[in-house]
Amino acid sequence: MKVRILGCSGGIGGRHLRTTSMLVDHDILIDAGTGVADLSLAELAMIDHVFITHSHLDHIASLPLMIDSIADMRDKPVTVYATDATLEILRNHIFNWAIWPDFSEISIRQAAVMQYRAIRVGEKIALGERTITAVPAEHTVPAVGYHLDSGAGSLVFTGDTTINDAFWPVLNRIANLRYLIIETAFSNQEKRLAAMSKHLCPSMLGEELARLERTAKIYISHLKPGQIELIMSEIEECAGDFNPKMLQNNKVFDF
Fold first, then answer.
1. How far apart are CA 251 and CA 180, in angstroms?
2. What is the pLDDT along the chain (255 residues), one digit of tens a residue?
3. Which of 60, 83, 117, 194 can bridge 201 by disulfide, Cβ–Cβ 3.0-4.6 Å?
């Protein structure tokens, strides 16, 4: 299983800042933020599965444009996986004919261009020898994270989340855990805002990582532009024992 980071920033503002998306092998996306736009048309056309953590714009911004761009290049639908609540938001507020055409109703060849697949926390989706499982997240809208398992190793992405009691028992049961990607959106001086918006700040991250019982390499995503150096320096103070690294575009995980 090969995971390439297309975007991992909490915002935009320069060529190096792209919002959340990960390309798994050649055919799976985890979220569809602005980083997807850097893929070629040929690469976009190879994507069969898109797993959405939640409905916020920085995680879905490229999805409507991607579906439109490759609609006439495929002979089977792109499957969009998310919780029922997130799919309902996408139907009502994005693919609703007012903001964007509903490609689940548009057929260019025999099948619709896009189809929805509801998932639940704990549900495993097997795609060949790869398994993707929705894991608990706690955010201002319905949200999940994802556990990617190749059989040889696992990567877990928390998605956008805050203090989350349900997450750590799930994570600690993953025997082949290699990588944890966890968000930290705000600095400690904005802890109140982090709590209100259900994100993490470095002090909260340190409290959460103290619950980790597995050995894993830890990467930090979703840092706010303009606060990157401050947040990472505070993470070093609050969670330095875990040796977390800042996630960057084009980082590749092979497991």
1. 14
2. 999 999 999 999 988 899 999 999 999 999 999 999 999 999 999 999 999 999 999 999 999 999 999 999 998 999 999 999 999 999 999 999 999 999 999 988 778 999 999 999 999 999 999 999 999 999 999 999 999 999 999 999 999 999 999 999 999 999 999 999 999 999 999 999 999 999 999 999 999 999 999 999 999 999 999 999 999 999 999 999 999 999 999 999 999
3. 194
pTM: 0.97
Amino acid, single-letter form, for residue 89: I
Residue-range domain boundaries for the chain: 2-254
Phi, psi (rounded to 5 degrees) for 127: -125, 90
Look at strands 49-51 and 28-30 and give their pairing.
Answer: parallel
Both tokens assigned to 110: 């025999």
Longest dimension (CA), the chain: 57
Task: Please calculate the CA angle 18-51-191 and round it to the nearest 5 degrees.
Answer: 55
Question: Which residue type, as a one-letter code, is found at position 155?
Answer: L
Say how far apart CA 185 and CA 198 lie, in whole Å.
10
Pick the CATH number of 2-254 from 3.40.50.620, 3.60.15.10, 3.40.50.10490, 3.90.550.10: 3.60.15.10
Identify which of 9, 8, 32, 24 has the alpha carbon closest to the alpha carbon of residue 148: 24
Each residue of 59-83: b (16+ CB within 10 Å) or e?
bbbbbbebbeebbeebeebbbbbbb
CB under 8 Å to 236, separation ≥6 — which residues?
none
